[in-house]
Write a structure and sequence with these properties.
The chain is built from 3 helices and no strands. By secondary structure, it is mostly helical.
């Protein structure tokens, strides 16, 4: 019996600390639920604040992006115009060197050819004018120069005087067309 009493006393001594642990656990549980409830309420507010902050950051980022895009576009335009200018210079240098090389070879330039074409046109006009002016007097001379049958027999009896032959001068190397000599 003594043993039973000792067991009861021991169980009462053990139960007291267990009751304290049980009470503490309930308090912790209740505080945890309260913290969770508070966290849920504040969490939604915090989430809304983060969303607002994110929107502000997004609009700021879009502004920076558009600014950066315009800067890059301006830089690309500047670089493109400078490159175009350099290509134009290079093209002019190339054209000048090719023209000099062709000139050394005796190949006429486009300007030389256009001058010659203009001279040929002037000569053609002169020849046409000469033909038009010369055609009317020649026709009159032919009709006036037709002798009668009697005069024709007397003219035929006379030997015709010989005209001296007209010699054409030989072409010199300096007369070569377009400045091309016998190289």
């Amino acid at each position: 019996m003594v043993k039973k009493l000792e067991k009861i006393k021991a169980s009462k001594n053990i139960a007291a600390p267990l009751n304290g642990v049980k009470d503490s656990a309930q308090q912790i549980w209740q505080k945890g639920l309260g913290a969770l409830n508070k966290a849920q309420a504040e969490g939604s507010k915090a989430l809304e604040a983060l969303v607002k902050e994110g929107r502000k950051t997004q609009s700021a980022a879009e502004g920076k992006l558009s600014e950066a895009t315009s800067r890059v576009t301006n830089m690309a335009t500047d670089i493109s115009s400078k490159a175009t200018g350099q290509w134009d210079k290079l093209e002019n240098i190339f054209e000048d060197r090719v023209a000099k090389a062709l000139n050394k070879l005796g190949v006429p330039s486009a300007k030389d050819v256009s001058v010659l074409i203009a001279r040929i046109d002037e000569l053609n006009k002169s020849v046409q004018n000469f033909r038009q002016r010369g055609a009317a007097p020649q026709a009159a001379a032919k009709t006036a120069a037709r002798p009668s049958a009697k005069a024709a027999s007397t003219v035929a009896a006379k030997p015709a005087a010989k005209r001296p032959a007209v010699r054409k001068p030989k072409a010199d190397a300096t007369d070569a067309p377009l400045g091309l000599s016998g190289r």
